[in-house]
Structure formats: C-alpha cells, structure tokens
Predict the structure.
Amino acid sequence: MIMDSYLRAADEAENNMTDGVWAVPGDDRTFNVRKALKMSQELGRPLNDAEMEVLYREAAERDAKRE
Amino acid sequence: MVKIRHVATGKLVDATVTPVTISTGDAQVMQTEGWNFDWSYPANRAECVLALKTFGDIQGMIGFTRHPGDYYTFIHLLESAPANIGKQKKYRFVPGVLLATVAQDAFAAGFDGYMTLQPKTRLYDLYIDTYGGRLFENRQVLFDTFASKKLIKKYIGGI
C-alpha cells in the first residue's frame, strides 16, 4: 500500500500507541481563539497561563454582558 | 459514510460516524473492556459525542463542544477503541477520520474549520509536524482553516 508521509506518520503514531488516547480533557473555558493565535504569532511563542487568563476573563465578561 | 482500512486484509471498509449518548452503565462496561475514559456525562462534558462504527461496533469516539461566540470547536476527548491500539490494531486511521469529521463540522458551523484540543503529551509532535496544528498556548493545539482542510482531504477526501 502506498501512503504519503502525512498518513505514514499518523500510522506510525497509531502503531506506537499503548492506550488509544489521542486527546485528553483540557480547559474548555471559551476565549477569542483568533486573538490568541495572533498574540502567539506576534510573541513568537505559545501564550502562558497568565496571558490565557486575560483572554478567558475577556470572553467571560463579554458573555456576561450579552446575557 | 467514511472509509477506514482493515489492517488484516488491507481493504477499505465502509464506516459511519454518528452522534451517540453513552450512559453511565455503558461507560462502566466500556471501561472494563479497556476504554480509558468514562464517556458518559458529566464525566465527559462534551456537548456532542461521535462514534465511528463498522458493522455496529464502535472503533473510536470523539467528544467536542462548539463555541459559536468565538467561532471554534473544542475537542474534549479522542480515543481509539481497545481493538485499534498499537501494531495489532484492527483498523487503521480511526483517529484521523474522527478528527477530520469534526473539522468538517467546524466548517459547517461557520467556524472556518477552527478547532482546538489538548493532545496526549507524546503526540504534540504528530499534531504539529504532521497534522499542521499550532501550539498557540502551553497545552492546546489549534487547527486553523488550512490544517483542517488538509485533515479532511487526507482522511475523508480519500485515503
């Protein structure tokens, strides 16, 4: 079977799996994901917890106003 | 209808991806069969759970919540069935097809394919280097329009 590198890498990851878990429960507080991405790109690194807290708070305040 | 590959024969087989509700009792049985997570609510807080099935058997599941206020989907859990783990797995590409299905949903919902998830630690490289996800914060990986389109093309547009 011919597979490209994309599928081959995924297949390899499946082969090396020991428990079948691909995504684990994370923090599902809503936030402005596009703003987060832009900030991360500008900083040149992933956002830290403090920076994410600001985004979570902004979204919570916005949602509270909508209600 | 989607297709996954049966490892023993090398053939593509038809599969369905449909919403399911897992009761507490079902979840307990599943965990005795080797599933890692309790997929019942509220242990699993996902708004929607999809199961990939072949011949009535669940081969993998994905749980997610749409966030229309911020135009993205959050993936809570993604797990392959115990029969699809490691080199002895029965079917190939189950997690990829499930991810691609949620990516399709993220386009249909008007989110331009945007979705986030927290990978298992050892899979960060796969999600970023192969799937094209971006580590935009310390734990979560983001799939943007391009990465989601690529997932769909690879896993649903023809394997």
In short: The radius of gyration of chain A is 18 Å.
